[in-house]
């Protein structure tokens, strides 16, 4: 079994003159990233590999999550930034099969679209909530019966859970 953790970056600030790719986390986002890191560790969801978008806000999200969950190999992948489903799927399908649990940290609308593309069954409440809104620091946990990431396809996943900072008591969703 393979497991994908899709973590949308935490809430970002938008300083005057900053390019989108250079937006830092807001204070509220920093708190949410720490809360989600604690959740990942507490729920034994620690990945074998983290794939992180090149945007500053995703990098900062990872830098807050990483010390909580421990040493996890990571790769920064510019293809995740502002990526459509097809590109995100390509990035995922290229992951080596030895990485059984993969954390991807990226953006919307790509992550919401990717989750909708991959999920064929699972937690109905989570599926409905995910379809309404994929807030910052939202985490979708999707399981696949395949043995290789290259075989992950449309509707082949099962949503184990969809959690947000608010749903774990760590503040408001955005």
Descriptive overview:
This protein is α/β, with parallel strands linked by helices. It has one domain (2-168): Phosphoglycerate mutase-like (Rossmann fold, 3-Layer(aba) Sandwich). The protein contains 5 helices and 7 strands; from the N terminus they run E-H-E-H-E-H-E-H-E-H-E-E. Strands 3-2-4-1-6-7-5 form a 7-stranded mixed β-sheet. Helix 2 links the parallel strand 2 (49-52) and strand 3 (74-76).
Q: What structural class should be given to the helix and strand makeup?
A: alpha/beta
**Regions with pLDDT < 50 over 5+ consecutive residues?**
none
Helix-residue proportion: 25-40%
Main sheet specs: 7 strands, mixed
**Strand content of the residues, in percent?**
15-25%
State the end-to-end CA separation.
Answer: 32 Å
CATH topology: Rossmann fold
Corresponding CATH superfamily: Phosphoglycerate mutase-like
Provide the domain count.
1
Rg is 15 Å
SSE succession: EHEHEHEHEHEE
CATH class: Alpha Beta
Topology:
Elements: E1 2-8, H1 27-42, E2 49-52, H2 56-69, E3 74-76, H3 85-93, E4 101-106, H4 110-118, E5 119-122, H5 124-132, E6 139-144, E7 157-163
Parallel strand pairs: 1-4, 2-3, 2-4, 5-7
Antiparallel strand pairs: 1-6, 6-7
Task: Give a nutshell description of this structure.
The chain has 174 residues and is α/β, with parallel strands linked by helices. It contains 5 helices and 7 strands. A 7-stranded mixed sheet has the order 3-2-4-1-6-7-5.
């Amino acid at each position: 079994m393979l497991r994908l953790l899709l973590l949308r970056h935490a809430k970002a600030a938008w300083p005057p003159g900053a390019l989108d790719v250079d937006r830092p986390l807001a204070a509220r986002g920093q708190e949410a990233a720490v809360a989600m890191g604690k959740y990942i560790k507490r729920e034994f969801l620690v990945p074998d590999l983290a794939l992180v978008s090149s945007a500053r806000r995703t990098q900062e999200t990872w830098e807050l999550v990483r010390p909580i969950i421990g040493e996890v190999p990571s790769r920064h992948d510019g293809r995740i930034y502002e990526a459509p489903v097809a590109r995100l799927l390509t990035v995922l399908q290229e992951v080596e099969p030895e990485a059984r649990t993969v954390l991807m940290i990226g953006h919307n609308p790509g992550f919401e679209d990717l989750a909708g593309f991959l999920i064929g069954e699972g937690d109905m409440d989570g599926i409905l909530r995910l379809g309404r809104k994929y807030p910052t620091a939202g985490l979708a946990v999707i399981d696949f019966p395949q043995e290789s990431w290259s075989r992950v396809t449309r509707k082949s996943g099962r949503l184990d859970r969809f959690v947000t900072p608010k749903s774990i008591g760590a503040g408001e969703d955005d």
